[in-house]
Amino acid sequence: MNAQDAKPLSAKPSHNPGVTSGEQRHNRFLTRVSSLNSGLCNTDISYLEGKVVLRATPGSIRLDVVAGHPAAPVRAYLLKTGQKEIASHRLKAIRRHLPGRASVPIVRLQP
Amino acid sequence: MRKTQFEGLVQKLLPRLPGYSVSGWLLHRSPADGVLLGFCCDPSGIDPDHFALVAFALPLFMPLPGGFHLNFGRRLRDGEGREIRWNRHGADLDTSLPPAIQRADADFFHHHLAQGDPATLLRSLGESTDPYLSEALAFCHARAGRPFPARQAIRALSRSRDPSIHWHNAMATRLATLDTLLDADPMELAPRMKQWVESNQSDLGLPLTSQPIPDMRSI
Q1: What pTM, to 2 d.p., does this model score?
Q2: How far is CA B81 from the centre of its chain?
Q3: pLDDT, tens digit, for every residue of B39-96?
Q4: CB pairs under 8 A between A and B
Q5: Nearest chain A residue to B166, by CA
Q6: Is B45 in Cβ contact with A62 (below 8 Å)?
Q7: Where do the structural domains in chain A lie, given as residue ranges?
Q8: Which residues does chain B have within 8 Å of residue A68's beta carbon, measured at their own beta carbons?
Q9: B145: alpha, beta or left, given left = phi > 0 and alpha = psi -120 to 50?
């Protein structure tokens, strides 16, 4: 996967006032990655202390996409729809719980 | 998707999935020989009606701090390698979900059910560089009366341990317990593993079953 996958995503007005354009872009991006037939990418994976855990497990962190087996990812991707960088406290939390920690590149994707 | 919605959905399909029962997010076989096998619902963060399934194995004969995890698991994919996502309102759910589960059951679990070595099963569902897999394999070897590979796994993990990582230290403590049992009190291993099975089953909300833990062979 490369950053190109995120490029064609554009914000469209939401029919649901509770859904922001950022969420819509996330949804479309993850749907697109899910439909890739690579067999290598996994979407929406949560981690706690190096373990793959159920979504919304207390204390866990969630990554948009990981490449490789989720238990030993080789690369992690975060889609950022805004202009801000990934917050340092978020990066720290990801590093704390992601298997492989510093050795796994965390790639910021921006549509 | 909510847990109760998944339970209700799968409950209707159980007659077509013999040997399975549903408990929360888990569609699982009765724990046999200290291993829980099944499929875990992975609700989508994208759409509340969508979900995926992860085929998983969980060895219950070892400490599982933090409880259930999916390190020994694989998401169900179609023939072309795409993640399969179902819609709980989908008209094709009845026709597509049971066959996909049956196929995955055959692909991932049948060999284990025939051969009965959890180490092979965990290797096939996990990733060789995952420390949790190495830890589980150490317990598998110890349980099967293979102290040499058990100790090898313990030593390898000890060498790769990073003391700055909290969960590496917790793992080292668990493995030290295993190492001590292997060295000093191998006869205590079987009853200890039985205790872990019972306590893990209880923690996961699974019915307690009396299941044989193989006798320790000449450790």
Answers
A1: 0.87
A2: 22
A3: 999 998 777 888 999 999 999 999 999 899 999 999 999 888 888 989 999 888 889 9
A4: 84
A5: A49
A6: yes
A7: 21-109
A8: 127
A9: left
